[in-house]
Specification:
- The complex is a heterodimer of chains A (251) and B (421).
- Chain A has 251 residues and is α/β, with parallel strands linked by helices.
- Chain A has ten helices and twelve strands.
- In chain A, a hairpin with a 2-residue loop joins strand 1 (3-14) and strand 2 (17-28).
- The longest helix of chain A is centred in the middle third of the chain and has 15 residues, at 98-112.
- Chain B is an alpha/beta fold and 421 residues long.
- Chain B folds into two domains: 3-258, no CATH class; 363-421, no CATH class.
- In chain B, helix 6 crosses helix 7 (377-393).
- Classes of the chains: A alpha/beta (251), B alpha/beta (421).
Chain lengths: 251, 421
């Protein structure tokens, strides 16, 4: 196993407030890791720090992908290097057509790789095929990005983007939030289809429920900006029964 | 200010008819608005007042070939082009007008009755209305026969060159009862001052799809006055884009004179460097059951400035009026500035009127979402600016006019710093 993502003693602040206080985590190629934690533990901050969002300042430590530090890279550079973030709250882009958005994203990566841009007709076929699996119809594909989508539709659209962009490191930020059981199943099945020996995932969630469907190799408990406990999938069940309180105390 | 020192210099004017003489007297009495004029508070004319200018009166229209961009766009639109150069009408370009459209012009006819019509429709006591009526370099009246629907667009191309020349074309369009036409203005000159005066009258149940492009040269001052009168059940679908020039003001006054008329009066302004764009509208709901809609979008880069002033007036008897107005400005630079002054003046009680104005920057969250997908930041910015403008241009129903407007907005976008499509 080789380390795809290495997080070394990562400290990060939002404004003057330190949120991450020394995260250490190594994700090998093909592994699925879950991060669980109570509200305010730093879960979303971690997803934004990994994807390079402005306003999330790294104050110490390093993040390496394939052995290369990502901290100086812009969000678009990280994405083209294989990083993908499925948003907890996908963003509406009124006036930006869905298909042109998807094509721009796929082409950005292909241009970087020195490949030709996608053929428009073939691209439409490919998108339709992948969309069908996720229960996304043509009407949704024609609309402006995320505009008028329900909560569940937005999450499915995130997974569609992931399927098209084929990242090596996917971070799923509370992909289960706002989903009912049926929607959760569809989204999880979509994610499971993307499980691949060459692809790693970091699944961030508040609830154990999601991990019944997307079964992780490892589970980490984040609290107070640090990983307090790590284990296999049984740790998630433990948390489900006992809550986060005990873990906070252990810190 | 002494009449003899006012710019443009009108000393060469002679033999004016009564209507133009009266306009000249008003111009000489009032001149350019002074520092206290409320409706010019955001747009100061110091730059034009200081210019040495004279109308190109007495010059004949010359054999300049039309600009390449105009030729290309007219071909794409399959438009008939009527040409003005330095404000003078090229009468040869009136040959072969679409069936159902007739032209009358001041170079071969007594135009007094027409100038009187224009004076009646133009914004009242407006500096450009007064000045350009008096200094009229050429007058053209186009009439569309009642009941005739003309689909071929007619493109009025205003070109010219000479920084000491002011152009004062006067155009009147009269669409007869149940007639329909598609007309566009395209202004692209290197003149010191372009001051077009336009009057549009729609008869009952008439329709006019209208677009204006202001793509003047970098040193031009463009001050336009347009007056529009809408008859019962008529539809005016108008859209302007102001992208060129050093300082531009597009002022339009609409009077809804017949019930159930519909008026779309939307505009985009695109500013860069130290440009100043002003969109000023006055929508007079004189009678009831009419609908007016104004979508204004501005994008301002560098140290440019944009102004939108729009007043919707609803007369006491104009019940069931629906008047909508929304202005949004997008600032791409810390030095850019947008001012908006939307006003509602309502004297009827059973109306639906709404207005709003926002000024903002590109949304950071939207930019992050796009870049997190690997889309370079410059492309992401262009996508969001494009979406902002398309939202307005999408309201243009006529495909030829929409294409013409997109040509300008796309061209402008391609030059936004840090943007590559």
């Amino acid at each position: 196993m080789t380390a795809l993502l290495e997080i070394r003693d990562l400290h990060a602040s939002v404004g003057d407030t330190p949120i991450l206080k020394g995260i250490n985590l190594t994700i090998n190629t093909g592994e699925i890791h879950a991060i669980m934690g109570p509200n305010g533990s730093g879960k979303s901050t971690m997803s934004y720090v990994l994807s390079g969002r402005d306003g999330y300042e790294v104050t110490g430590g390093d993040v390496l992908m394939n052995g290369v530090s990502m901290l100086e890279m812009e969000p678009d550079e990280r994405a083209r290097a294989g990083m993908f973030l499925a948003f907890q709250y996908p963003v509406e882009l009124p006036g930006v057509g869905g298909m042109s958005f998807l094509r721009a994203a796929v082409n950005a990566r292909r241009i970087e790789a020195g490949e030709d841009e996608v053929d428009q007709l073939e691209f439409v076929k490919m998108v339709r095929a992948k969309a069908k699996i996720l229960g996304i119809n043509d009407d949704m594909l024609k609309r402006a990005v995320n505009v008028g989508f329900s909560g569940g539709e937005k999450k499915r659209y995130e997974i569609l983007q992931m399927a098209l962009l084929e990242p090596t490191m996917a971070v799923l930020d509370e992909t289960d939030s706002g989903l009912d059981v049926d929607a959760l199943k569809i989204v999880s099945e979509g994610v499971n289809l993307l499980r691949d020996p060459a692809r790693s995932m970091l699944v961030i969630t508040h609830y154990q429920r999601l991990l019944d469907y997307i079964v992780p190799d490892y589970v980490h408990i984040l609290a107070g900006g640090k990983i307090r406990k790590s284990g296999d999938k049984s740790l998630a069940l433990e948390v489900e029964e006992q809550g986060y309180a005990g873990i906070d105390d252990a810190a | 200010m002494l009449a003899s020192t006012m710019q443009p210099n009108l000393d060469q004017l002679s033999g004016l008819d009564d209507v133009r003489n009266a306009a000249l007297a008003r111009w000489q009495a009032n001149g350019w608005p002074d520092a206290k004029a409320e409706s010019w508070r955001f747009t100061r004319l110091g730059a034009v007042v200081a210019r040495e200018l004279a109308p190109a009166i007495g010059m004949s229209e010359t054999a300049h070939a039309p600009g390449a961009e105009i030729t290309a766009i007219a071909t794409e639109m399959k438009a008939h082009v009527i040409r003005f150069y330095n404000g003078m009408l090229d009468v040869r370009s009136l040959d072969g007008l679409p069936d159902g459209m007739t032209a009358t012009h001041s170079l071969n006819t007594d135009f007094e009755a027409i100038t009187a019509e224009v004076a009646g429709l133009a914004p009242v006591d407006h500096p450009v209305g007064n000045l350009s009526l008096a200094a009229m370099s050429a007058g053209l009246r186009l009439s569309v026969d009642a009941g005739v629907h003309i689909e071929q667009p007619v493109l009025l191309a205003f070109e010219g060159t000479g920084e000491t020349i002011s152009a004062h074309p006067v155009v009147m369009v009269d669409v007869g009862i149940s007639g329909a036409a598609v007309i566009a203005e395209w202004h692209q000159s290197q003149l010191g001052l372009s001051a077009p005066l336009v009057a549009l009258r729609l008869g009952d149940k008439a329709r006019l799809d209208y677009a204006k492009v202001q793509a003047e040269g970098a040193n031009n001052v463009h001050l336009a006055a347009t007056g529009i009168s809408l008859g019962e059940g008529s539809v005016f679908a108008g859209f302007s884009i102001s992208a060129g020039g050093q300082l531009a003001r597009l002022e339009t006054h609409v009077t809804l004179t017949g019930e159930s008329a519909e008026c779309g009066l939307s505009a985009i302004y695109l500013g860069r460097d130290k440009q100043h764009h002003d969109i000023t509208t006055y929508m007079d709901h004189a009678v009831g059951h009419c609908h007016s809609s104004q979508i204004i979008r501005g994008v301002l880069d560098d140290a440019s400035r944009g102004v939108f002033q729009g007043k919707v007036h609803v007369a006491p008897d104009a019940q069931k009026t629906d008047g909508q107005q929304m202005s949004r400005a997008l600032l791409l630079s810390r030095k850019a500035e947008a001012d908006a002054k939307p006003e509602l003046e309502i004297y009827a009680d059973d109306v639906i009127c709404a207005h709003g104005a926002t000024v903002g920057e590109l949304d950071e969250t939207q930019l992050f979402y796009l870049t997190s997908r690997g889309i370079p930041k410059a492309t992401a910015r262009a996508m969001l600016i494009g979406a902002f403008l398309d939202d307005a241009i999408d309201s243009v129903e006529n495909a030829a006019l929409a294409g013409m407007l997109r040509h300008i907005s796309d061209g402008w976008m391609a030059d936004v710093k840090g943007v590559s499509l």
